[in-house]
Amino acid sequence: MAFGHPRRRLRLATSFEGPVPEVGAYTYTPLKDAREIRVLKNFRMEVAVYLLDDKLEFRQELSCEVTTIGLDMSTSVPYVALSYTWGDPLPEAPADNDSDASSMSEYWIYCNGARLEVGENLHCYLQQAIAKLDHPIWIDAICIIQQDSAERNAQILVMSEIYAHAFAVFVWLGPSDTASDIA
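and the corresponding structure tokens:
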């Protein structure tokens, strides 16, 4: 659903000791070196409450935690890797980081409590796979800072190791459609 007005995401609170902070965009923590990778874990659906024109709207949203592991430690920390089609690129973020909903993608997840925009195809995969994700997962579009060319290039150099060290590689081509059974 697209929103034509600014919105605020509120956290559900069990106590009301003060104002509930707004949730901002996800900020990556830099990797220590090229042999370290980010993985996502503890996927869950959370109820988010939006305040829109003095009305509350409740939505279920994907949430996860981002953590890092060393490639050399990957045998002791089993993870899976996802290979998928990216689809259309995300819209450019506004220069002033305005939270106006008209500038936001319709697809996002919450990483460590902060919003991260994702492509439609990846969002579709995560919604369908959430119940089955019982191991950390490496997803290039999320686990590599795509806007940081130095990190992106360093991670590309070890990408074959990332896939090789994963105990499983999932392939996602997209949701099924009427022609899926033919393929």
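(Above: one complete record from the training split.) Confidence is low (pLDDT under 50) at residues 1-7, 12-21, 97-104.
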